[in-house]
Amino acid sequence: MIVFAILAALTVAGSLAAVLLRNTVHCALALTGAFIGLALLFLRLDAQFAGFAQILVYVGAVAILVVFAILLTRGSETPATGVFSRTWFAGLVVAAGVFAVLAWTVLHSAVALPHEFAAPQVSVAQIGNALMGRYVLPLEIVAVLLTAAMIGAVIVAMHEKPGKYEKKEAN
Amino acid sequence: MTNTLDQIFVLLKHWIMGLFPVGLQPIVGIVLSVVAILAVFPGLFAFSVLMERKGLGRMQNRIGPNRVGPFGILQPVADGIKALIKEDVVPYNADHIVHFFAPIVLVVVVFMGYAVLPMGRNMTFVPMDAGLLFYFAMGASAELSVFMAGWSSRNKYSLLGAMRAVAQMISYEIPLLMTSVIIVMMTGSLSLDKIVEAQNHYTWGLPHWYVFTPMGFAAFVMFAIAATAETNRSPFDLPEGESEIVAGYFTEYSGFKFAEFFLGEYVAMLSISGLGATLFLGGWSAPLEALNFIPSWIWFFAKIMLAICGFIWLRGTFPRLRQDQLMNFAWKFVLPMTLIDLVVTGLWRFLGEGWLRWAVCSAILLAAYLITARMGMRSKKLGPRSYRYAE
Questions:
Q1: Best to test chain A binding among B141, B174, B177, B249 (most A CBs inside 10 Å)
Q2: What are the pLDDT digits (tens) for B153-190?
Q3: B143 has a chain A CB within 8 A of its CB
C-alpha cells in the first residue's frame, strides 16, 4: 500500500508537472517521469511484459520523439503569453467528463464480473502465444497500419526533386 | 573442490547472510549483491581504461602511461583522485537541475542492466522471466540521459553531440533488439539464464554456442556492430568527434560529473559485452568440455575482457565514419541483414535435424550478404574523394 502511494504520487506529480511547467523540454522530461511511474505500477501488479514494454517504448522511444519534435520545430523557449491556453476551463470540463465516464465504467465492470480470488498468473510466454495464435490477425493489421503511417511520414518529409514538375509542365 | 570454487561467491553470500537474523536476511542478500556489482565493475572499468591506453599507445607506436606505479598500473587511481578534487564548473546559463541529474541517470541505468546478467552458475542477481526485455528497457533509458546532458548545457556543440548520439543510438538499437530476437527464437525464452542453459551442452567435447550456427554467427556479427554503435565507440564515435564538436554531449561537464560519464561509457561497454557473451558465446559455459573444471565465473569475465580487447583493437585501427555513412550503414545493410537472418532462423526451425538445414541456411545468408553488401558498395561508385568546402 505504501509502495502504491509512492508510485501513484510519482505518476500524478509527473503528469501535473508536465502540464504546469513553463519550459517545454522540462514538461517532456516530467512526462517521462510519469511514464516511469506507470511502468512501475504495472510491475507492482506482476505485469512484467507490460511494465518493461512501457519503459522500452515510452521512455526509450516516445519521450525521445517528443523531445526531438520540440527541439526541431520551434525551439524550447517559453511563449511570452504564458503556458495556459485561453480555453483552459472548457478543457478542464472535458477532462473531468472523460474521467467520470472511465471511472463509472471501471467501477461497474468490477461488479459485473465474477470476483477472482487469486490473481491470474500471466507469463511473457503466454502473451507471446496469444499474440502469435489467437490475435495474429489484429497484430498484423496494426503492423500494416504502422508501416503505412511510416511510409506516409517519409513521403511528407521527403525533399521534392526540383526537375520533376518542370518536366511534367513541359509535356 | 571444483564445485566449491565454482560456487564460492554464492556460498560466501549465504554464509554472510547466515550471520544476520532471519528477518533481515533477504535485505542483506540484496545489499551484498549490489555491493559486489558496484565493486567489481568499476574495478574492471579502471583496468580496461588502463588496458586501452596501453594498447592504443602500442598501436600508435608510443609507450602509453608508464609513470604512476610499476608499468603505470596506478594510472587509473591517479586519474580518479584528479577527477575527485577538480573544480566542478557548471555553465552560468545551464539548466542546473537537468545538468545535475543527467550523469546520475546514466550511471544508475547502466548499472541496473547488470541485475539480469548471469555471471556464473547460480550467479544471477535477479533471475527474471523477462530478463532480456528488462536489459533493453534499461538500455533505452540511457538515451534520455544523453539528451538531458546535451540539452541542459546550453551549448550548441553539446546539443549537436546529443542529437547525433540519440539518432545513432535509436538507429542501432533496432538491429540490436532484432539480433537478440533471433536468439530468443532459438531458445524459446526471454530469460538469460535459460539462454545460457540451452548453450551449455557439448558434442564431441565442443560447445553448442549459438555463434557456431549459421544464423547465430551472422547475428553475432550484426550484434557486435550494433553494440559498438550503441556504446558510441570508435568507429561510431561521432557524438564525441573532437575535431568537429569539442567533446559532444559532455563538453560542459568537468570534475567528477565528467568522470561519471566516463564510468557510464565503460560500464555500458562491459555490460553489453556481457550480454553478447551470454547470448552468443555461451555465457559462463566453458569453451571445451574438458575445461569445465575451471569455475564458471572465470569464463564469463574472460569473455567480457576478450570483447573489451576487441573494442580497443577496433578503436586503434578504424577511421571514424561520417554521419550519412553511419545512417546508411544502419538502415541499408545492418537492418536488412538482420531481417533476413530472422527469416532464416524460422527456416532452421522447420527444416529439421541434419546437414540439409546447415547447407540451406548458410547459402541463404551468404547470398544475402553478397547481395546487400557487394551491390550496395557497387552502387556507391567509390572513387577519389572530392571536397566541396575544404580545397
A1: B141
A2: 888 888 888 888 888 888 888 899 889 988 888 888 88
A3: yes
Beta carbons of B140 and A49 less than 8 Å apart = no
Q: Is residue B385 part of a domain?
A: no
Q: Does domain A1-77 have CATH number 1.10.472.90?
A: no
For residue A30, what is the nearest residue in chain B, using CA coordinates? Answer: B98
- pLDDT beneath 70, residues of chain B: 1-2, 379-387, 389-391
Nearest to A29 among B138, B148, B173 (CB): B148
Please indicate whether, in this complex, the C-beta atoms of A68 and B166 are within 8 angstroms of each other: yes
Residue B19 lies in a domain: no
Q: Tell whether B189 is within 8 A of chain A (Cβ).
A: yes
User: What is the predicted ipTM?
Assistant: 0.74
Please check whether residue A25 touches B, CB under 8 A: yes
Helices of type H across chain B: 2-6, 8-18, 25-59, 75-85, 96-112, 131-152, 156-187, 192-199, 214-230, 242-245, 255-280, 296-317, 323-328, 335-351, 355-369, 376-379
Query: Measured between CB atoms, which of B137, B170, B190 is closest to A124?
Result: B190
Domain encompassing residue B126:
89-378
Nearest to B119 by CA among B23, B9, B199, B14: B9
- Quote the pLDDT of residue A146: 92
Touching check for A26 and chain B: CB below 8 Å? yes
- Note the pLDDT tens digit of each residue in B247-293: 778 888 888 888 888 888 889 999 999 999 888 888 888 888 777 77
Distances (CA, A) of B140 to A39, A40, A64, A146, B137: 14, 16, 10, 21, 5
Pairing of strands B202-203, B206-207: antiparallel
pLDDT of A120: 64
Does B18 fall in a domain?
no
Q: Given an 8 Å threshold on Cβ–Cβ distance, is B133 in contact with A26? A: no
Query: Which chain B residue shows the shortest CA-CA distance from A25?
Result: B151
**Contact status of A67 with chain B (Cβ, < 8 Å):** yes
**Interchain CB distance below 8 Å, A67 and B130:** no
* Euclidean distance between CA atoms B215 and B180, whole angstroms: 12
Q: What is the pLDDT of residue A171?
A: 46
Helices (H) and strands (E) in chain A, counts: 8, 0
Q: How many structural domains comprise chain B?
A: 1
Q: Is residue B195 a part of any domain in this protein?
A: yes
